[in-house]
Structures are given as C-alpha cells and as structure tokens.
Fold this sequence. Notes:
Layout: H1 17-66, E1 70-72, E2 78-86, H2 93-102, E3 110-114, H3 122-135, E4 142-146, H4 149-161, H5 168-171, E5 174-182
Antiparallel strand pairs: 1-2, 2-5, 3-4
Amino acid sequence: MAVDPYAEFRADEPPKDEAFAKLDELVKKLTQAEQDVVTAEAALKLAQKQLRQLDEFDIPEYMDELGLKEFTNKAGIKIEAKSTVYASIGNRKVQAFAWLIKHKHSALIKRNVVVAFNTTEGKNAEALLAEMKERNLGAGAKQEMKVEAASLTAWARRQLKEGQEVPADIFGVYEKRSTKITLPSE
C-alpha cells in the first residue's frame, strides 16, 4: 500500500453535516448579496437617468417655454437654466492637431516627455534630467502630444464668444444644458 505524503495535512475527521449546512447557508447569503447588488445598481442607473432627464432637458426646456433664464419661487429657491459649451478631441487627434497648427493655435498642444527608471536608478534619472536640460535634448525619451480637455474647452468657449470658427466635427463641440438650484440662505 502506498504511503500518503499529504496525510499529516489532512483533517482527522471529515466535517460534520452541521458544517455543510452552515456552508450552504453562507453560499445562499452570498448569492442573495450578489443579487441585491445587481438590483441596487439597476435602481441607481434608473435614478441617474431620471436625474439627467430632469436636469438637462425637462426643466431647461420648460423654462425656455416660459421665457425664463432664472426664477425664484415663493420658498426662495432660485432655479437657473444654464448652458455650458464643452469640447473634446476624442479619437480625432490627427485632424485636431492639424487644424490647430494650421490656424495658429498650436500652443494648445502640449508635449510630454517621459523616461521610465526603476527606484534604484534615481541617480541616473537625475543625471539624465541634468544632461537634457544642459543640452536641450529629449533623446531616448517617450514623447506624448496632447491637448488638455479643460484648456480645449476654455479655448472653444472663447473662440465661439468672439464669433470665431471652431469645427464641431473635429473638436466635438456641444452645448450642455443644466439646471442650477440655489437654496435660500438661512
């Protein structure tokens, strides 16, 4: 008969029926908890959808129908329908950069240079930074070009306010309506 090399690690007695009953109960609780999370997430998504509908569409549109930009009700609650312009490049990076360069807005494009060092190479990193600064070089470094979303949005708002061209198809320009509610100070 073969010797069991794992015998010393095995329990002397198999678990009793009560242990399996408790395990079954814990598994039932886990499955119920998982279902509760799914139900709560669905309820949250619905509540967020309703909130967005009221905030961005129903109230601003109704205030437009009434010819109001803002209103203070009898309880002192101030309601404002606001419009905010946003812009984003998304996956149109090549077209956006080309347009910005062509139209003399290339200052919006930022170049980031990144060189990865592990924690034991601190002296090498400092030496490279010093050499790059001394020689005005970025050789061997990873370069990334991007336009910060906040900068792009601010630029687009200024351009539109000044009556300048901002191609919506390249810069994803859109106007978001929203409702601002200010409670009376007590």
